[in-house]
Design brief:
By secondary structure, the chain is α+β, with helices and mostly antiparallel strands. It contains seven helices and eight strands, in the order H-E-E-E-E-H-E-H-H-H-E-H-H-E-E.
Length: about 200
């Protein structure tokens, strides 16, 4: 394994059964309603996890960073259910794919793996609560600014190559509304706009 996320016997098992693969940005590695065969552990780059509503709109649930995995993939695979989310590569990523049968077996064999899963569950649960809170109580401008800051941290840059449509998709909004809010943010000196680029001030 390229990064020692785990130790001893578990690390050997991960090295033996894990399949490292590289994926370019925008690659869909897990689609909604598909059966889950692997649990992804991000080694470098990042993934974004989205949920599509009945009307076709999407909303960003959380990002998966290096050393992390997708707890919703694990839970779905554990019960042999189809995926309720879509996982997309946000920036070029190297991902370790763990077969779902091994990921399930390791819960009984390795306390360290179980601890890893429970910590992920706790982290994602808190993030999902933040999403619910933001949708219910925060205005779009606050949610948009938070999303831009998240992307800035991921890419380690205040200049973001992102379209208004991409932001609208992740916020569960429309391009027209997002464009209007971004223009207002520019007038307030919070961002600077260029073609398909947004810079945080």
């Amino acid at each position: 394994m390229q990064e020692n996320i785990f130790q001893t016997a578990l690390n050997k098992a991960v090295d033996t059964f894990g399949q490292p693969k590289s994926f370019p940005a925008e690659t869909v590695i897990l689609s909604e309603d598909s059966y889950i065969k692997y649990i992804p552990i991000v080694l470098s780059g990042s993934l974004k996890v989205l949920r599509t509503e009945e009307d076709g709109r999407e909303i960003l649930l959380y990002y998966i960073k290096p050393g992390e995995s997708c707890i919703m993939s694990f839970l779905g695979g554990l019960h042999n259910e189809t995926s309720k989310i879509r996982a997309v590569v946000e920036e070029d990523a190297q991902i370790l794919l763990i077969p779902i049968d091994k990921a399930t077996e390791w819960v009984k064999e390795f306390p360290e793996w179980t601890d890893f899963i429970f910590k992920l569950y706790h982290k994602r649960f808190e993030e999902l609560l933040q999403v619910v809170n933001a949708i219910a109580f925060q205005k779009l401008d606050s949610r948009l600014l938070h999303l831009l800051k998240q992307k800035s941290e991921l890419f380690k840059s205040k200049e973001l190559s992102v379209t208004h449509q991409q932001l609208a998709d992740e916020l569960g909004s429309t391009r027209e509304v997002v464009s209007r809010v971004i223009k207002q943010m520019e007038n307030e000196g919070l961002v600077r706009l260029a073609r398909n680029k947004i810079s945080l001030m």
